[in-house]
């Protein structure tokens, strides 16, 4: 009995040693991290001319410590802990400007980020919990 318990404890310890580097494959970036529009991002036309890109968006990971990594990085479990860029090929990789036809297309960079960031901040605001910005100019600051 005792011997088998010891053995399983050793096994568990060894397993956690093997599993740990997979679970913590990539540390979250520091809080000076800024999310920029991907290269080639198109903008809505205004008076026949292409409009300007929005300013970039600072994203502090430590302010989101109450949210599990995989809630935002929703492909990491399936990828064995590997974290992809949201705009990687095959993911949210449509660089089109948002218009009538693609207003709900989650492949669109703008829709992917706005759905995740703004919906969570709004929901928390409703519940009177600490939350993040919901106004354009409070996120697009850089
Ligand atoms: C909670 C933060 C947040 C809020 C609020 C927010 N955005 Fe964004 N938005 C982002 C992020 C993150 C991206 C992806 C990075 C980027 O493209 O700048 C993005 C991308 C975009 C893009 C596509 C690319 C670009 O940079 O031009 C547009 C257009 C945009 N947002 C417009 C708006 C407008 C208009 C509002 C207000 C109605 C708004 N955003 C509110 C976070 C936010
Ligand atoms: C509230 C949402 C959210 C949570 C929670 C979150 N992240 Fe992120 N993380 C992001 C976003 C958005 C980006 C920007 C991705 C991009 O630009 O494509 C990012 C970027 C990253 C990057 C850089 C990816 C790259 O290639 O540039 C790493 C690494 C990362 N996060 C790790 C983590 C880890 C580890 C955790 C958990 C401790 C975590 N994140 C929790 C939203 C989140
Ligand atoms: C699942 C919920 C959730 C998601 C998704 C989320 N946030 Fe937040 N965000 C929070 C919470 C909660 C806070 C408030 C933390 C606090 O003040 O303790 C916050 C705070 C912030 C702040 C304010 C930080 C400060 O200095 O006060 C910024 C900026 C922010 N979020 C940006 C973003 C962006 C950009 C995204 C999308 C890439 C995003 N958040 C996605 C929950 C979320």
Account of the 3D structure:
The chain is mostly helical and 142 residues long. It has a single domain (27-139), classed as Cytochrome C3, CATH 3.90.10.10. Helix content is 34%, strand content 6%. The chain is built from 4 helices and 4 strands. The chain has helices spanning 2-23, 69-72, 109-126, 136-139; strands at residues 34-35, 45-46, 49-50, 57-58. The chain has a two-stranded antiparallel ribbon. Strands 2-3 form a two-stranded antiparallel sheet. It starts with a helix and ends with a helix. The relative contact order is 0.12. The model has no long low-confidence stretch (mean pLDDT 90). One heme C binds next to strand 4, helix 2 and helix 3.
Helix and strand arrangement:
Layout: H1 2-23, E1 34-35, E2 45-46, E3 49-50, E4 57-58, H2 69-72, H3 109-126, H4 136-139
Antiparallel strand pairs: 1-4, 2-3
Bound molecules: heme C (3 copies).
State the gist of this model:
With 142 residues, the protein is mainly α.
Give the overall form. Answer: elongated
Count of domains: 1
Helix content: 25-40%
Mean pLDDT: 90
Strand order of the largest sheet: 1-4
User: Regarding CATH, which class?
Assistant: Alpha Beta
Name given to the CATH homologous superfamily: Cytochrome C3
Largest sheet: 2 strands, antiparallel
Low-confidence parts, pLDDT < 50 over ≥5 residues?
A: none
Q: What percentage of amino acids are in beta strands?
A: 5-15%
Q: How many strand units?
A: 4
Helix/strand-derived class? mainly alpha
């Amino acid at each position: 009995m005792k011997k088998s318990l010891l053995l399983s404890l050793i096994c568990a310890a060894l397993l956690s040693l093997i599993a740990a580097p997979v679970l913590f494959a990539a540390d979250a970036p520091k809080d000076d991290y800024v999310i920029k529009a991907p290269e080639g991002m198109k903008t809505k036309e205004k008076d026949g001319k292409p409009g300007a890109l929005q300013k970039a968006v600072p994203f502090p990971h430590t302010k989101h410590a109450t949210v599990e990594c995989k809630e935002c990085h929703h492909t990491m479990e399936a990828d064995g802990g590997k974290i992809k860029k949201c705009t990687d090929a095959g993911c949210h990789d449509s660089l089109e400007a948002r218009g009538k036809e693609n207003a709900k297309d989650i492949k669109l960079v703008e829709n992917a980020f706005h759905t995740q960031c703004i919906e969570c901040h709004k929901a928390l605001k409703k519940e009177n919990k600490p939350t993040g910005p919901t106004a354009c100019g409070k996120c697009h600051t850089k």
